Amino acid sequence: MRASANKKLAGLRRYHAARPARTRLKLLEALDRMESGHTVVVGSEFKWSKTTLALEAGVNVNTVVRKLPGGQWVFPEINERFDQLKGKRGRSTMGSDPREEKIAELRGEVERLKDQNRLLALEVNRVGEQILQERERADRMAIYEQQNASLREEIRRIQGNGETSLKAARKA
Prior knowledge:
Elements: H1 2-36, H2 50-57, H3 61-65, H4 76-93, H5 98-171
């Protein structure tokens, strides 16, 4: 029974060790398809967003936008290439009309700000969860401190009773 559990655990570890490489490959292939316009999951008139990339790659959008605790992207090369392709696409669609160029520029800015807003919302959620965890931890610590104070008082009481009985025993 124990050997079976160890075998399963070892298999899970091997599976999860290879996951980032498979995910990276899925994302790179999806970027290639998006760049060529031959998408499989999203339509040919897709909007360049990280959500669309995640859909095309068959991964959760949080996989694309997730950051490590130090603030670096989990898949920096994917995000850099996505930004390059998105920028290149924006420049290639611009016509010679200055108004169209301004509209395209402003749309790109809106998309960038939406992405930034979404990332900030994710960060706020993460920090909020961290605050809640720390608050719960502080509450538990306060309860432990009350229990410790109660136990110290009981120890003093017991030690006081023990000293009183020793004095009584010595007098007798």
